[in-house]
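Morning. Coffee machine broken again, so started the prediction first thing and wrote up yesterday's gels while waiting. Chain of 376 residues, entered below exactly as on the submission form.
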Amino acid sequence: MKSVVGDRVDCLDGLRGLAALWVLVGHAHLLTRFSVPVIGDPDLGVDLFIMLSGFLMVFHYQRRRDREPWEASSTWITFWVRRFFRIAPLYYVMLVAALTLGPMLYDARMAIDGFNGVRPQLAERYLDSSLANYLAHLTFLFGFSPHFAYRTALPDWSIGLEMQFYAALPFIVIVIGRIGWLKGIVAVTAIGLVIASGLNRIGINFPMPTFLPLKMHVFAAGMLLAGALRTDRARAYQFAAIAIMLVLAPVGGERDLMHETVRVTLVLIFFAFIHTHRLPEPIARRLRPIGAFLGNGFFHNLGELSFGAYLIHLMVMQPVIAYLIRTTDVSDPVRWALTLAITVPIVYALAWVGYNLIEMPGQNIGKGLTKPRASA
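Came back before lunch.
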């Protein structure tokens, strides 16, 4: 069995589902003071999400480019409409919920921060229900503004980032088509690094990396791994080596050897699963069953619920932890375990409801709106 069959990637659902679970578990670590390396860092899970997104967008572009050529502006519109209705419906519902429940969530977070002895979160992150904040998030423009970039109880900083990537992708693909994969990806990443460096020099700092140039190198790594599917083995390995260099790009923050090692490992694991057929047979033989396992029914469902779980989990987790702090006297590991035991079932139940009642109808609307154009 190959790792890539037609329009399917065996392990992709599992990787997507595990990335969302990683973020959830990582936040539980941070908020309960129970610190474990790697799995206790939700940012690494988000980076895996971003790399998966870069891969997926290029993978589907390659699969559809004969019938939906990106040289045609109609293809851009089709792509943007589909992506909007993939993200926006559930996000808008969760945005209203987060801003409506802001006072309760802020109270829970103050209990958590006080107990953990850390710097309290700014009140406006939870309590800003102004029209300007709503408009910034409804239009997905909040990622361009340090002021609005981190101003809801949702972990939505990456959602605005994702929408910027979707907006830029047709132009990136056109550049790649004209000058080649490696030159195009390197050029786009270099532009992002220059912009990120310029912002830092003039003192514009984002509370989270919500602006595309700050994470373009991670998207680009995933894009390269997808581009490598249409190359020979030697060139695929070259693409993987450059993808590793991209995730190590010096963009903001302090350098951390452990985090850099994990990011490199994620690239290698991702490459190994989607390019199993290009690995030495003894290694490929061991990876195929794992890839198939990550594509089974359970992991398929976990992947389908990943977006909802990602959006919802902090709104459930913070009140749970605040309640445990106020009503129990247990060790940090026990509080962490109790948090997950209570939070995970609730989060995934709500994600299932959101997937079936909001996400899928939204996706169907997007497909319906673009079907005549796609057929043409």
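The beta strands are 4-5, 8-9. Going to sketch it on the whiteboard this afternoon.
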